Amino acid sequence: MKILFITHYFYPDPNIFYGLPFAKELVKRGHQVEVLTSFPNYLDGERFGYKQKVLLKETIDGVKIFRVPLYPSHNESSVKRSLCYLTYAMSASIWGVWNVSKPDVVYLPHGPITSAFPGIFTRIFRGAPYVLNIQDIWPDSVESTGMLSNRFALNLLNSICKMAYSFADNIAVISPGAKNKLIERGVEPEKIELVYNWCDEVHFPSDTAYDFDLAEKLNVRGCFNVVYTGNLGPAQDMMTVLRAAEKIQSIVPEVRFILVGSGVEQSMLQKELELRNINNVILHDRVSLNHISNFLSLANLALVHLKDKPLFRITMPSKIQTYMSSGKAILAGISGDPSKLVADAGAGIGFEPGDSESLCKAVYEARSLGKNKLAEMGRNARAFYEQNMSFSHGVDTYLKIFEQIRRK
């Protein structure tokens, strides 16, 4: 099968879920894969040695890559970011789609919805059906993050989304709630497929041994450890964790919260720890992907927490896959689909987002269950991941979708 990826971001830009590893696996399974993408632009100022030109062709591990120019910007300016999205869509539609081989199937990984334009062009002018992968519901996500607030622009974006959905032969979503949201907006249920994201399985195996050296360094050996890895921003609301830790430290002194990451609230959290004299929280700077599993090896519970907002109820935080792949019991302060998934999998204990008392009770409950029960939850998590979220399962699912729409 000839499969064309049309994606704004591709290697060496970060594209964990549907980037080079996915393309390489398809090649390994005997398919011909080409990628129509841009020059590296996700990280401002980082071009990885590339210089823009009208068209650049290269091959990486059997994957043929075609790069077209764009206005590179990934900063906070909504105007510059929009220019970045639109110029790639124009270059790929007007120039790129005519330089790639005629595909059997087009695949549009997650990214700005404007990337759907070259997919629509390919469908109309080259007769290739396409699969649209949706990670975030647009325009809801760009409005909620504050990237765009102009009502005219949001309505225009909504119209683009509807057009992309109508031309798509299949739409892959990452949660049941996202599927329901699309159905509410008029998308036919039969062309929506639930495909969970996978994680970087090389860095998050289930058999990472307890890191005694790290435990000694952090002074948490023999403690009951709640580990969080990721962003420290407003959406994660780590102040709820600090308030819970403040209450817990005098009642169950062996509990430790290890928060590993960075973000706009990191300095504020550090100040609060000092101001409140909280001594059972370790705020550790962000570490490389290679070292996250070392911190998770210390975890009795792996924490995920998001504010209770409508958009978060139908998303699936990447931490869920990371923790499940690592075989960790999850302490889930989330609502909606991710909360239900953890509960249905028997993979952890939930608490009410933003409620420090609820978090305290969940920690007490987990500790009372004992290590064997928590280990069982971790095994359940790993089993659910392997059966429903793993890389091999995801690739199998997409190949079935590709074959199905190809035969229509």
TrEMBL record:
<protein>
    <submittedName>
        <fullName>Putative glycosyl transferase</fullName>
    </submittedName>
</protein>
<dbReference type="Pfam" id="PF13692">
    <property type="entry name" value="Glyco_trans_1_4"/>
</dbReference>
<dbReference type="GO" id="GO:0016757">
    <property type="term" value="F:glycosyltransferase activity"/>
</dbReference>
<feature type="domain" description="Glycosyltransferase subfamily 4-like N-terminal">
    <location>
        <begin position="22"/>
        <end position="198"/>
    </location>
</feature>
<dbReference type="GO" id="GO:0009103">
    <property type="term" value="P:lipopolysaccharide biosynthetic process"/>
</dbReference>
<dbReference type="InterPro" id="IPR028098">
    <property type="entry name" value="Glyco_trans_4-like_N"/>
</dbReference>
<dbReference type="Pfam" id="PF13579">
    <property type="entry name" value="Glyco_trans_4_4"/>
</dbReference>
<keyword id="KW-0808">Transferase</keyword>
